[in-house]
Amino acid sequence: MQEQLTNISLDDTVLVERCCAGDSAAAERLIIKYQDRIFNVILKMCQNRDDAAELTQDTFVRFIENVASFRGGSSFYTWLFRIAVNLTLNYCKRRSKFGMRSLDACGGGDIEDARMQLKDYLVDADPGAPGDPAILAQKREIGEIVMQSLSKLDADHRAVLVLRDIEGMAYAEIAETLGLELGTVKSRLSRARGSLKDILGLVL
Fold it and tell me: Which of 12, 100, 138, 164 could lock 95 by a disulfide, CB 3.0 to 4.6 Å apart?
């Protein structure tokens, strides 16, 4: 009989061990813990809500299928994000190859979150009271521009930018997630930020 986990605070290591032992409640706890973050990262990378939902589901299917192979060389968080990002990069590259374009941009909340995280690239869009409808409309418009500009970056640059500037991952975690050297992560991020600034400079 499985131990009840509902009100117990367990770290990822313990939960992963229980998953490997066939504890479905532990697997469910990990899924609940990370599903929103995984979905939001995928959404900002692929720019399509339906596809992001499908890729999130695929990520957790891979997690269930492969958790026994997790050896703890990295954090579980990094391991899981590596699965999600690799699936999404492959999706983005296939979409680009076949000329497919997103028809479903992020919802308003996601746009606003991204706008706040990427505020260093934006002009000051908040000169008045935050409750002013005109200011809120301006924020939404700028948010949409940011998300459209992100979609113009190539998939590899977009991945680094999302993981660092939206998800807030450390450089070392990004390097491990993407299987890159630390210097490559930093140079790719620098190029991604420069490209995004150039794109935003043309439209803002």
Answer: 100
